[in-house]
Amino acid sequence: MQGIVTVIKLVAVFMAATMLGRWFQSEIKKSTLRKEPWHTPYLSLPGLIILATIFILPLLLWIIKSRE
Question: CB atoms < 10 A from the CB of 53, how many?
C-alpha cells in the first residue's frame, strides 16, 4: 500500500512539472513571435516559478538540514 501512495505522489509531481514546462514553453513561443528580448519569458509567472524553484528551494532545504 505504501508503494502505491508513493507512485501517486510521483505522478502528481511529474504532471505538475509537465504542466509548468508547457506553460513556460508557450511563453517562450509568444515572446519569440513578438520579437521580445530573450529574458522576457523568465519574467512571466511560469518563469518566476521555475527560477524560484531552482534558486530558493535548495537554500530552504539547506537551512532545514542544517538545523537537524
Answer: 12
Whole-structure pTM value:
0.80
Q: Which residue has the cell 513578438?
A: 34
Residue 24 near residue 41 (C-beta atoms within 8 A): yes
Grid cell in block for residue 21: 514546462
pLDDT digits (tens, 9 = 90+) for 38-61: 999 999 999 999 999 999 999 999
Distance set, CA 3 to CA 6, 8, 9, 31, 42 (Å): 5, 9, 10, 42, 36
pLDDT in tens, 15-41: 999 999 999 999 999 999 999 999 999
The residues, any chain, with a CB within 8 Å of residue 28's CB and separated by 6 or more, are 41
What's the full length of the chain, in residues?
68
